[in-house]
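Internal QA ticket QA-208
Title: Verify multi-chain structure generation after dependency bump
Assignee: T.L.

Test input:
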Amino acid sequence: MSEMLRAPAEVKYADELDYLESVDTGPKPFSWRLSPRMVRLFVLGSERADGLEREIPQKWFGDRSFVERSIVTLASDRGLLLIGDPGTGKSWLAELLSAAICRNSTLVVQGTAGTTEDHIKYSWNVSMVIAKGQSRESMIPSPIMTAMEQGVVGRFEELTRSTSDVQDALISILSEKYVSIPELNDDNIVFAQPGFSIIATANSRDRGVNDLSSALKRRFNFVRIPVVTNKRSEAEIVRFRTEELLRRHRIELDVPPTLLDILLQSFADLRAAAASATSDDEKLESALSTAEQIGVLEDAILHSQFFGDRTLRVETLAGSLMGSLARRNPEDLAILNKYLHGVVEPRAKQNGEGWAGFLDGGRQAIASLS
Amino acid sequence: MTTATAPDDPHRTTGDGSGTAGAGVAAGPFGALREQLTDAAATFAGSADALAGILAGIVDDVDRALGERLEIFPVCHHSPASALAMVRRLRHKQPKVIYLELCEDLQPLLGELRNCRLPVAVQAFASELDGFPAEWGPLSVVAPVTEASAEYQAIAYALETPGVELVLVDRSTDHVFQWSPRDDAGPAGATGPTDDAGPTDGTGPAAVTASTGGAGEQAALHGDAVGVEIGDLRPRFAELEAYLLHHGKVRHWSEWWDQYVERPLAGADHDTYRQVMVLIGSLFRRLRPAGSDRTERDEDRERYMWTRMREHLAASGADPADCLYVCGAFHAASRVAQFGLDSPAPDFAITPRTGTRWRYGLIPSSHSAIEAQFGLAPGSVSIAAATWTKAVSGSGLTPFRLDGQRGGKGRGRRKVAAVAAPTGPMADRLSGFLAAPPPLDGLDEAELRGWCVDIVRLARRNGYLASTADAIAVFETSILLAGLRNRARPTPYDFADAAVTCIEKDVVPGRRDVRRLCEILLGGDRIGQVGYDALPPLARDVLDRLQPLGLDLEKRTIGRALLDLHATPALTGCSDLLWMLRHLLPADAVRPIMGERRLGHRSIQESWDLALGRHQRALIELGYEGVTVEQVLEQRLRRAVRGTDATAAGALAAVEDAIRLLNSPRLVDELGARAVELLATERTVDDAPEVLRRIRRLLAHHRATAPALPAWCEAFVTTGYAHYCTLLPTAFVEEETGVRQVGAMLGFLFSMESLALSLGCDRSQLELAVAQSHPESPAKVALLWAARHQLGLLPLAELRERCAELLANPLVVPAFPRYLSGFVHALEPVPGLAPFVVETMSTAFARLPDPVLLPWLPTLITTLREHGPELVPLLVREAARTFPGTLPELDAWVPPWLAPAPTPTPSAVRVGPVGQVHTLLAAHPAAVEAVAALLGCDGGWSTPQATPAGPSESALVAAHPDTVEAVAALLGGG
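Actual output:
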């Protein structure tokens, strides 16, 4: 296979999936490639007690019951809607689930303000229609329709970003499980094959942009993914994603554990501050999610790799933290400044390890931003 | 597993006559199992040492416990399986004596359970401590009792069957605290989250105290009592529990227990039940942190219980074969030397109780309170209760029940029918239980379907858009989830997860989320109630005295009582009692909606919200303090003024309460005298504003109601005068003392001055104190000026001049607002200064530069609102008097202080018409001349024009001549 910047989960973990499929003896719903228990094992990793010859690493970090509820929903009649703050790993979970269930996580519709019903159902190859007339050949099926035809999982990212009438096109797909093509005289219904389901994601911060109609809500099971606040699992996630990233960029760089601690601690502090804020102005615009942390670290790593001396320094980290979190000019900068002054400064005086550098880097970054 | 392994007790009784065998000896019914486990240990651990010791030891423990002559019945708390096994065993064996692991001093209370609706908690309470650190007080121990528990079955059987004796053998509540570590802040702290963080001990003072935060009202029913419970069975260290949960693929301990022990044991026979329970007890006993205080306490308790049982058997001569010892499974696997009736070890030396006076009672409990107290998952006790009900109806057993027990269905039966006992040698039931997965119940489709339909209905009622389609989806999802989690039938926990998945969307429409609805559906929280007969005398007295209100006060709802004291004076007693309860109970228990009781004020109509049923615990605990509410209130007030942190202001508040609520002059005098003492010994003036406010109110009250002030009031005023005079110079200088405090001191001195002087104080004290005061901060300087003005040492003109100087000096201008604050505070002691304060403030607004004025304005407003709300009306009234009220007037308005002072001219003196007054004054000129001389008025006597008295005056006087004649007669003027 030619090289990919980012391989989809089913390609990346093809070995693991093959292995799991070969040892899977459990009952499989519909046309699933793995049984529900193996899907769970693929997502959450294996333990000694599972009795597998090969260790399956954990890929998604979070409560076991979220994964179980999601898998069960996909085996039932309803669609799955993962809802949560940005950066909580909704899309990653969706990708892992569809990769494990049907080995295809690429049938994705991205919801935007410009998404139309065509993107969900089908559209036409205009030149072919002119040449040959409307037929199944000249029809371009949407990813969702493809998923129906193949009996696999289709994904709909950021469902609430698309407008309500477009969202409602999903209602008939989810209840009747077919799409009719009135333009054709015969062969004009595409029936969903067994195994078809939809995983949608929605941002809880955007709720209300285009609220879901209750008819559509009824056809989805909602699984709310919370922001990870457990420091241990958060450290695990950051480490996991960073390693992947370093591998992808082929960067030989060490992320010192103290630095990771500083990153996690600073996010924990800022989250606490946001939780106690009374108005939006006292709150950073960022959701301070784990993905944001990974972004900060990635930025710092790339910066040190290409503009620094190829070692990750705490000053660089502070700089990229300030850079990524300061989005609104007076408000966010004021909050970060307050944080540096009120929290980091005393800490730097108390136990200088790392925090003094963090303070310096942060101050420089703020000075250059404001 | 570094913290695990308990070394074998050196005093262990091995090889006694009861068939107990040492490790490695393949004998007895468990020989094969022991061998198998030792082999397994050798295979997996590489050596047969530690692991084999533990595994074989567990089997030994089972062997030993089951071989004991006195039948040991291991139980676990809130386990319907335990309760079922207990019912079966009691019906079968019909023991004559039951030994129960519960604090022995709680015994007399158990009979009162029949007057209550379960769950209730048996409580021991002590507020007067003797032999315990004072800061531990008040001590409180609760032992909750639920219907679905083995101990309730045992209690009900023993109390309802003639000839059966129930003996509580665990250490007394006094020992619970005697054995608590002393070095900690308190018994709760010592036994709470330190070494027993997650898992909690059954009957030790170990249970984590109930957290009140966020847990809701029901969860806080036990207050901060230490919980004791029979048969807590939980891993003793967090790692083991986490390990079991992780591999059991469950989320919390209750779920693990339900799946792996409860359900498999639900229908088990007696032998299997006992063997498995002892096995689990032994496992947790052997895998526990070694050498902790808690381990020692547990072992001491076991020694205590065995000693008590032996004592009882010796004294009563009962046959051990007719006895049953009910204890937690943990204690059944005990390895102390005193274990067993045949143990040669000497009896445990039981220490005498301390002098602490314990009081006992029953308080209402609830499922959520039990869950919160003992760290169980929310809803687990309710689920256990539901399981019990279902198991009872399914098994055809008749559970025991106290006669007259309230609540639930009457299923009790007094006559205990003997069931034929299959007797035989003990057989190994463990191997089978451990080797094969337990036969699980099949899917109970009807039950699950019922749940699904009900949850949808409940959800709809709570605002969710749920429909029949959701019921179907919940059903399907429950089964799928159970399958994914390796269970043949969905547990209530699976069902709850499925319901959340299918019904809960992005928002919770009502007050309750779906998980909470599931809890309600599966039994819901049940709140117990203590019946009237089981209440302490005080609580009964309260209910009796509130009878005239005609409300059912035992109900858990809020009742509205309307008291028209004018129409029904008989209700005055109720009203008095309610005000006292208002003072003593939590704010929500009795809440006045209309009417108030201040000093000297009683409302004619009152209306109250009463929720005594909901706050039964508070009322019952009040009952431990005395026999009547009056007595308790009196004690509390006395305690409030005698305590080490009592203050004069607090004592005055107590005096006020005593007048308001008790109307006992004797107590008022006593508290007042104490207030004087407290004031004289106080070294700070922090409370001065409060003292001033209260004493003013009390003085006004006494002046209005009694011909003379009580002695303590006079003493308070004279003491206060001297006290504040002494402290004034220091208070002016000290930085810690605020302006408000100094203002209040001056307020006391000036407003009480006339009274104090009449009582023999010396004014020079005050003058000296003011002369010695040299404040530095601007606000206090302003206060001092005001004080000197009041004393006549600083005329207004000079004061005005000083202010003008301040404003003129650019170096001082930034500090001017602080001077102004001082003047505002001076309104309290020197109210006559109000026009000047308004004037100064207006000048400041006019002349202060913006950079000084603008930042100060918000501070002024907040300071006024916080510290001097009573001064604001005064200021506003004065301002309204000074400034024009309409716009047109404003154009022509000149501030009074800028207006040229009117020069008095002699011609302005109006000469009134000659009347009898004038004649009178002219006849007696001495007084008038003296006044004129004092005022510096030397205009002399003017000759009046002789005009006849006006028609109106003379008509009036003529019509009512009596007054004039009387005055005339008095003056002898004729």
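Spot checks passed. Chain A has 17 helices and nine strands.
Status: verified.
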